[in-house]
Specification:
- By secondary structure, the chain is α/β, with parallel strands linked by helices.
- The chain has a single domain, classed as Response regulator (Rossmann fold), CATH 3.40.50.
- It has helices at 15-27, 39-51, 70-78, 100-105, 118-135; strands at residues 7-11, 32-36, 58-62, 88-92, 110-113.
- Strands 2-1-3-4-5 form a five-stranded parallel sheet, sandwiched between helices.
- Helix 2 runs parallel beside helix 3.
- The two termini are 14 Å apart.
- Bound molecules: magnesium ion.
- Magnesium ion binds next to loops.
Amino acid sequence: MFPPHTRILIVDDMPSLRDLLKAYLRRLSFRNISEADDGRMAYQALLAAKAAGAPFELVISDWNMPNLDGLEFLKLVRSSAEWKNLPFILLTTESEKAKVLEAVVAQVSNYMVKPVEEAVLKEKLTKVWEKVTAKS
Ligand SMILES: [Mg+2]
């Protein structure tokens, strides 16, 4: 599992969903959690954190958001060589499920269908962490 100090960026245009994810992550012992409203702000946050020498180590992002949606944000992240392997989990709705293949092609680490449950989040994080450790 990701260590508790992992720097996590939560991206969702709904504050209530960010709060829910934060509560789940805190219960899973995570302590370094930041938030962004949409893909554009999230990308700025990624750049700022990198510049500050404390880059994010995990992104959990909604798909459907204004300005820059989750898939566009994922593609932007993956276009940078240093973020090729940045763990990136997308949140989708049931109706977006058919588009998941597109996200897989864009190298998403994993995805979750809303409404997110704590047990599912834990399971997905465990799976993504296994991928991270298999690569190193
Ligand atoms: Mg949304």
